[in-house]
Specification:
Two copies of one chain form a homodimer. Chain A is built from seven helices and two strands. Chain A has a domain of 57 residues: Orthogonal Bundle (Multidrug-efflux Transporter Regulator, Chain: A, Domain 2), CATH 1.10.1660.10. The first copy, chain A, is an all-alpha fold. Chain A binds a DNA duplex (30 and 30 nucleotides) through helix 2.
Chain lengths: 143, 143
DNA sequence: ATAGGCCTTCCAATGATGGCAAGGTCAAGA
DNA sequence: TCTTGACCTTGCCATCATTGGAAGGCCTAT
């Protein structure tokens, strides 16, 4: 199987397959006489594993650990679960962070009339420093 | 004010201040006789604006637009609100995406007993392709 | 005078990916 | 057999925002 076919079959672009090989994430592929990379079903399965892990947000560094466990028949499932749990926590942290950004922006946007006038609480907030949300809330409720 | 003081006062690192200057996001700072950059309160305020915008997840490209509106006294607040709304939508998209990843992982982790045995539905799923979640659910409910 | 803490510029790396260019190869059709 | 188009190869550059380091100049206090 050529790299293009392996790419189609795995969902990993040819570019990325070469990249993963260069970084050592996957072993160096076999070559034909003229230097074309050759892939077996096993290798395609490994690529699909990587693709799916990326889709779940795992950084390549963690995928390396996951692959090692995948290959290790005497692994402990606890180790896999721990990696998954860490990833879940990382995702949760980011979600909370973005949720906070979103809510802050939503409050500001709600307070902006959004017409032709120049007055805009969003710009006022951005120009006024890091505690402005609280300040703004206090100001609003204080009035 | 030196760049170090401006950095402390604005929350933007000296490194980033120089970078923003080099990319044209902020105007070139004044210089002392020996070439040190000098900053006024106005410029520090602009840096704080940038910092706060970054904290809300705006890409630098959008901050450029926000800064332009900030400076433009004949702006329409509608333009600012639109930028904020787009940012909110972008954040929401990413949140949903990460939420989906998290839930998928949570299902998988829940199904993994996490002990010393090697059997692990997480690894099975990662190795089995993109539709495995649905497949897995069907398998479980079908049994 | 010297130490250390600033400042300057330039260069490089991050992580995962896409894009482009120049050149070799293969298969099918004229 | 020759050509064409689709594939492969390597290598370099770009992204995005940020950090780090190296090499060298300046300023202040001891």
């Amino acid at each position: 199987m050529n790299i293009g076919e392996a790419a189609k079959a795995s969902g990993v672009s040819a570019k990325m397959i070469r990249y993963y090989e260069s970084t050592g994430l996957i072993p160096t592929a076999g070559r034909t006489g003229v230097g074309y990379r050759v892939y077996s079903d096993t290798e395609v399965q490994m690529l699909r594993f990587i693709r799916r892990s990326r889709d779940l947000g795992f950084p390549v560094e963690k995928i390396e650990e996951l692959l090692a466990l995948w290959r290790d028949r005497s692994r402990h499932s606890a180790d896999v679960k721990r990696l998954a749990q860490e990833q879940i926590e990382g995702l949760q942290r980011k979600i909370i962070e973005m949720q906070a950004m979103k809510e802050t922006l939503q409050h500001l946007a709600d307070a902006c009339c959004g017409d032709m006038r120049p007055d805009c609480p969003i710009l006022v907030d951005l120009g006024s420093g890091p505690n402005s949300i609280k300040d703004h809330a206090l100001t609003r409720f204080g009035q």
